[in-house]
Design brief:
- This protein is mainly alpha-helical and 367 residues long.
- The chain has 2 domains: 127 residues; 236 residues, no CATH class.
- The chain contains 14 helices and no strands.
């Protein structure tokens, strides 16, 4: 068991080194690129330390895994900040696990427990354009690395599992091809429209709320500039800037009302104005498409066949889809592809089996 854990740890460090190096090669800012190069070297050093602990030399260092190589290919499409988002999630998760284990065993905390996350953020904040870099990366982390691809995977999963269960339930209650097709297409449209509407309302509501808060802040800036100047000064003081210097900075910022409003919106309200430019309709269409792609898989066989042939083909096609979705989730979790894929298959088939059984009972009862 210890051997397996060590081998897995070595592979994790190799993958992290590979991904950090990839980020360094595709980062325009030289200072930030240097951060990623250093992180790559640190991760490689950890991998070598594991090898030396097993009495092996550098020639035994494994190549980057298929997961890491897949992330490289995806980054070319979704942007390289996808990788940063996943790495940040991984580092934070590892830190939480270490701290949790220390708490359970009663051992003392070490600086190295959270070093990877701390080093990355500390070096970024020491860079001349620290605030801009950190804000940019956090924004990309949420929009790309954090949510975009993840939302696509989960949207497809929702569509597949819900419509697979619905189709199997109707197939169990009725042997008719038309009934299953009608239910499957209705389920696809209803679910996709519901997802799209929910996404549109969510994005639109957030935008309207933030815009209202920004408007209130603008009115306060017009009617009480002295009070807002004090707030800006206090914000900088809270960041560790000396009182007199904070006052000077606030006074300078207040010379330009637009700049002052931007600072207050970002620092006081915690709103990133760039995020408000996102299209609610684009988010809705994206949710609709991803749900529909997953939901169409279990319906397809019933366009060409019926009875047990269609049911079996639908189950096989859905099983393949579930396994691919489970495998895709490992891009974020780093878990075993087989374990995650088969787990997704088991849950999906179990849900479909339950609805098929209920449908059969209802169909027999009606008959």
């Amino acid at each position: 068991m210890a051997k397996k854990i060590s081998l897995k740890s070595i592979q994790t460090e190799v993958d992290a080194s590979f991904l950090y190096h990839l980020l360094s090669e595709n980062e325009e800012d030289p200072g930030v690129a240097d951060v990623f190069r250093q992180m790559s070297e640190i991760e490689k050093g950890h991998a070598l330390a594991f090898l030396h602990g097993k009495g092996l030399n550098e020639s035994f260092l494994p190549q980057p895994s298929s997961r890491a190589k897949t992330l490289k290919r995806l980054a070319k499409v979704f942007g390289y900040n996808l990788i940063l988002g996943i790495l940040l999630d991984t580092e934070k998760g590892l830190s939480r696990n270490i701290l949790s284990a220390r708490k359970k065993t009663g051992t003392e905390k070490s600086i190295s427990d959270t070093a990877h996350v701390a080093i990355l953020k500390n070096v970024l904040t020491q860079h001349p354009d620290a605030a801009g870099n950190l804000a940019r990366f956090e924004k990309h982390h949420r929009n790309i690395g954090g949510n975009a691809l993840r939302a696509a995977v989960l949207g497809g999963n929702d569509g597949l599992v819900s419509n697979f269960s619905l189709v199997m339930g109707v197939a169990g209650a009725s042997s008719g091809q038309q009934e299953v097709l009608l239910a499957g297409i209705a389920g696809l449209l209803a679910g996709a429209l519901s997802m799209a509407l929910g996404e549109w309302v969510s994005v639109k509501s957030s935008q309207e709320l933030y815009e209202n808060q920004m408007e209130i802040e603008k009115e306060e800036l017009e009617h009480n500039p002295e009070g807002e100047e004090k707030e800006i000064a206090l914000i900088y003081q809270a960041k560790g800037i000396p009182k007199e210097q904070a006052k000077e900075m606030a006074s300078e910022i207040m010379k330009d009302k637009a700049s002052a409003h931007e600072v207050l919106v970002k620092e006081e309200l915690g709103i990133d104005a760039e995020e408000l430019k996102g299209s609610a309709m684009e988010a809705a269409l994206s949710s609709f498409m991803m749900f529909a792609i997953g939901a169409i898989l279990p319906v397809l066989p019933f366009f060409f066949s019926k009875g047990w042939h269609a049911i079996l083909f639908s189950a096989l096609l859905s099983t393949l889809g579930l396994f691919l979705i489970g495998s895709a989730i490992t891009l974020f979790t780093g878990r075993s592809v087989l374990k995650s894929g088969f787990r997704q298959v088991i849950f999906g088939l179990a849900a479909a089996a339950v609805t098929y059984g209920i449908g059969s009972l209802i169909g027999a009862s009606i008959s």
